[in-house]
Amino acid sequence: MEENKETQETPQEEQVTPQAEEQETPQAEEQVQEETTVEAEVEEPVVEDKGAHDDFDWQGGAKQKLSYTEKEIKDYLKDYEATLNAVEENALVTAKVTYVTDADIVLDIGSKSDGLVSRSEFRDTPDLKEGDQIEIYVETLEDERGQLVLSRRKAKLLRAWEDIKDSFANGTVIKGTVVSKTKGGLIVDCGGLETFLPGSQIDIKPIIDYDQYVGKTMEFKVVKINEQIKNAVVSHKALIESDLAVQREQIIAGLEKGQVLEGIVKNITDFGAFLDLGGVDGLLYITDISWGRIDDPRKVLELNQKINVVVLDFDENKKRISLGLKQLQPHPWEVLAEDVQEGSTVKGRIVNIEDYGAFLEIQPGVEGLIHVSEVTWSNQPINAREFFKLDQELEAKVVTIDREERKMSLSIKQLSKDPWSEITEKYPIDSRHKSIVKNLTPYGVFVELEEGIGGMIHISDLSWTKRYSHPSEFTKVGDEIEVVILEIDSESRKLSLGHKQIEENPWDTFENVFPIGSYHSGTVIRKDDRGAIVQLQYGLEAFSPIKHIKKEDGVLAEVDEELTVKVIEFNRDDKRIMVSHLRYLEDISREADEQVKAERRAERAETSKAIKKTNSNIEKSTLGDLEIFDQLKDQISGNEDKAEAKAEKKTAKKTTTKKSTKKAEPKAEDQADEKAEEKTEE
Asked: I want to staple 315 with a disulfide (CB 3.0 to 4.6 A). Which of 106, 167, 197, 320 is the partner?
């Protein structure tokens, strides 16, 4: 360091001289005004032969005096300032290396003084030598000691940020080194500034192992920046895509329909596969993979598999390419065996099921339709989705075939004899048979007597006595049920069946058991807004209107409640009985009223007889008693004459009483009680 300081003494003195002169300039101007000269004394320095080279005579003596005029001083300052560059603080400038040591580097930026920067800031340029040009950051033109302060580190950071902004704005490419792995991506050092590389932006292919990129130097494009915190997001994938875009343009420009290309399977989806055609992607749709039906492309293709494909179509504007694999092979219908013709039997598997039938694939790309009408000889409706199963292997008969239209219809039922050809002999009317329930509808039960032979039991033919709202209340699918053949329609292939007919019609007997006006005990089993179903004996069900199931308290009867009902309607033909609990209550009330009236009439008759008898007795006893009473009274009073007169009057009164009694007998019965009371009182 001491040697270095000695070596730098000369330049420092040279720099000091102008500054000293600048300080003396005001004094010189004052002396010029007084038309005087300024003398400067300069001590002769001790220098070697390799000292500074200028116009000053350093060998002239120990001291020399220099005189300057005002004009000379101004010219000198102007010439000096012309040698300096316009340098600003906090800016990037280009500096020239003037001196290199092991510890420091001296840089000339064209300012009044040179800058001294530590050698440690130039690790990225270890071969730096005198005369080299390098970019540096000016922190301060003069610090407290009057020295120029420069920074190589800040220059690199500022230049790196400028390059990042330029890449973001103009799409320029920058270089960086991956320094570490972080959550979701990598940290990249771009010129001393750390940036973030998301995992999705490393490559066009999904990357799982990030460690393989640590330490690598790569090229990037800046896709996002944050001016406030000086942060950026970079992408290597963007560079690849831009390169691929150029390749894509070249490939698409040379594409032709029907052209065969080699591709690599890069992705497989449910609807197809994407192939890399060398910089451009193409879609191989699932229907173009094989002439046969496939439900999953993964069963045919594998990732990174190399295959040849044909170009079916492409869109230069949308950069879409449609590819085909099956088109490289002849169509199966073109090589279909000649023995496959009408009437022949074929085998295959079910590859598709629709409401109207199923498609049987007899070989990849060759399919035939089995319509629901060709499944069974029975006229019973067939649910194709329930009857057929995917990948089910079946045998069928070729009904029609059209090689030009590439269509074929098949039949399963025609593999066996039509059972309806001898239906009347095997199933005569009124014959009984066992069957299996196959389907239920709101109006009846569909059963199968044997394969291909079936019929329907109407809901009204299930029972003589019960009315079902739905056949499911009586039976279920898979049950065995005995039926009677009621009617045969060979042309329409229909059988009308009955179940209740296996027993005699009980309604012939019910007419005598349940006559109109008869009373029966029943139980409410169902009820709605219209009325209730009442179950009678023998399992017979009767209907009662809603107002007819009111009880004595006016409340409607509930389900499972037992009532006494009256039959108010009986229809043998319609198998219908109507009953009423209300009418039963009315009848009971009426009978009770009539009984009360009868009892009252009987009571009145007996009362009338008693009154008559009482009146007769009263007449006899009353007259005798009155005579005795009057006689005693007269005797007591001593008026014997009066007693005789009174006796005569009473004899006449007796005669009048008998006449009045005879007139009272024919009066109404309702007054009998009152007369009896009056007699009794008398």
From this structure: 320
| Interatomic CA distance for residues 641 and 401, integer angstroms | 152
Number of structural domains the chain divides into: 7
Q: Is residue 220 part of a domain?
A: no
This prediction has a pTM of 0.40
CA distance 481 to 146: 119
Do 336 and 406 share a domain, yes or no?
yes
Dist CA 120 CA 228 (whole Å): 29
- In a domain, residue 111? The reply is yes
* pLDDT tens for each residue of 480-521: 999 999 998 888 888 899 998 888 777 767 777 788 888 888
Q: Which of 38, 59, 82 is the last residue of a domain?
A: 82
CA 440-442-447 angle, to 5 degrees, is 30
The residues, any chain, with a CB within 8 Å of residue 11's CB and separated by 6 or more, are 114
> Please, what is the end-to-end C-alpha distance for the chain in angstroms?
172
Q: What is the DSSP string of 471-530?
A: GGGT--TT-EEEEEEEEEETTTTEEEEESGGGS--THHHHHHHS-TT-EEEEEEEEE-SS
Q: Which of 502, 523, 553 is the last residue of a domain?
A: 502
Candidate ranges 225-229, 269-273, 511-515; pick with highest mean pLDDT: 269-273
Do residues 104 and 119 lie in contact, with contact meaning Cβ atoms separated by under 8 Å?
yes
- The dihedral over CA atoms of 275, 276, 280, 283, expressed in degrees to the nearest 10, equals 0
Nearest to 631 by CA among 648, 643, 622: 643
Distance from C-alpha of 155 to C-alpha of 111, rounded to nearest angstrom: 18
Let me know whether 497 and 518 are in one domain: no
Distance in angstroms (rounded) separating the CA atoms of residues 435 and 455: 9
Q: Is residue 232 part of a domain?
A: no
Q: Which domain holds residue 399?
A: 332-415
What integer is the mean pLDDT of 611-636? 64
Find residue 481's DSSP bridge partners.
Answer: 435
- Tell whether 172 is covered by a domain: no
Could you tell me the two tokens for 253? 């420009």
Which residues does residue 622 pair with via DSSP β-bridges, in sequence order? Answer: none
